[in-house]
Automatic annotation (TrEMBL):
<keyword id="KW-0378">Hydrolase</keyword>
<comment type="similarity">
    <text>Belongs to the glycosyl hydrolase 28 family.</text>
</comment>
<keyword id="KW-0326">Glycosidase</keyword>
<dbReference type="GO" id="GO:0004650">
    <property type="term" value="F:polygalacturonase activity"/>
</dbReference>
<dbReference type="Pfam" id="PF00295">
    <property type="entry name" value="Glyco_hydro_28"/>
</dbReference>
<dbReference type="InterPro" id="IPR012334">
    <property type="entry name" value="Pectin_lyas_fold"/>
</dbReference>
<dbReference type="GO" id="GO:0005975">
    <property type="term" value="P:carbohydrate metabolic process"/>
</dbReference>
<dbReference type="InterPro" id="IPR000743">
    <property type="entry name" value="Glyco_hydro_28"/>
</dbReference>
<dbReference type="InterPro" id="IPR051801">
    <property type="entry name" value="GH28_Enzymes"/>
</dbReference>
<dbReference type="InterPro" id="IPR006626">
    <property type="entry name" value="PbH1"/>
</dbReference>
<keyword id="KW-0964">Secreted</keyword>
<keyword id="KW-0134">Cell wall</keyword>
<dbReference type="InterPro" id="IPR011050">
    <property type="entry name" value="Pectin_lyase_fold/virulence"/>
</dbReference>
<protein>
    <recommendedName>
        <fullName>Polygalacturonase</fullName>
    </recommendedName>
</protein>
Amino acid sequence: MESLRISPKRVKVINVIVIVTSVVALANLRAAECRRARVSNSIEYNAISCRAHSASITDFGGVGDGRTSNTKAFQVAINKLSQYAKDGGSQLFVPAGKWLTGSFSLTSHFTLYLDKDAVLLASQDIKEWPVMKPLPSYGRGRDAAAGRYGSLIFGTNLTDVIITGDNGTIDGQGSFWWQNFHKGKLKYTRPYLIELMYSNNLQISNLTLLNSPNWNVHPVYSSNILVQGITIIAPVKSPNTDGINPDSCTNVKIQDCYIVSGDDCVAVKSGWDEYGIAYGMPTKQLIIRRLTCISPTSATIALGSEMSGGIEDVRAEDITAINTESGVRIKTAVGRGGYVKDIYVRRMTMHTMKWAFWITGNYGSHADKNFDPHALPVIQGINYRDMVADGVNVAARLEGISGDPFKEICISNVTIGMAPKAKKLAWTCTDVEGISSNVSPRACDLLRDQGPAKVTACAFPPDNLPIESVKLQKCSYRKSYM
């Protein structure tokens, strides 16, 4: 066969084609790399507000080595970013790393965003925790009569604040505080992980909270609050590590949260004894939805015991409790005053419980000796329906106050499977009034049986609360620093 011959002219053309093809391929490769870089440098998240300005904590000297204190870096960054409050707001990005910090305060129209591999480590240097006055509706600290340490993430008199991330972590390193609390070495009440006061339009979402020194999430004297996608983990014997505690707040939604703690998973509050009565700010219009709770010594949802400013219109649904002391618990006492009314719970599943339902008017623990012994709480309009449970020791313990019965209690379409070694008396009821329908084992006589035809007797409101109208926006962070 005659060998193939290519003319010099054709060789030149082929070389040009090869060069052009290589250049195009290289350009496409670089473009693809740029696209990948843009994707990797762009973070998207859902929020009540998006921001016009962005910065990273590293822009302000932050060091994520787990040893260097970043308290000053966080506060300088937030103070600097506060200048954009009226110019589209700002967001502070916390990248991967371990960011040791003490207490710092947020600003309005601001987003704190934690990368999926970012960990805020709470400092164990008490000098990095400022001391604050007691809350006016409490009159004293809960651990000690004096004041309290400021929370790790704090804010007051703010609007439009978002604390979120790609499931980034806030680690309270609580063992230091728990040990000193048990030893009686703390002069002030232990700090919370997140506390926002006198604020509105708040979002706390998509985070993991570990080992809080005290309560985890505490909005107080605030309104229009969304808490969702939060995982809270603390040892089940850790003291007072409540999950989420809305306190004298209005229009709140808590949803899609998983909580393992040493205290109540959600505790609804509104002030303590005479201080709460005088302050007079109730918690109302509260939604709790799709909550999973594990707390062997406390409640899935607790109302009180600090309820002296009142609690009303609480709607809880699609709740799962596992190895938890009680499903729904109302805690109050003579001297509390206030009220708990219009409470609605439905579609709750409980596994391995001490009590399914517990209402007590004998919960002591007063702020001081100055409470009014004539201040009796009003408990009425308590509705539980469409629930199942297994492994329960006592179906219900309902204890009102002599001369002040708890009224309008309604329990319907509830099946409670008792544990093999359950108490012989499944229901104990004193000083309560109400009705029941299709409840097994049969409810106590003080809850008059309405028969199986009344399985829908207990109300659940059909209307939406204002917080349901809040729409989240698709926001982004592109690492375009100042």
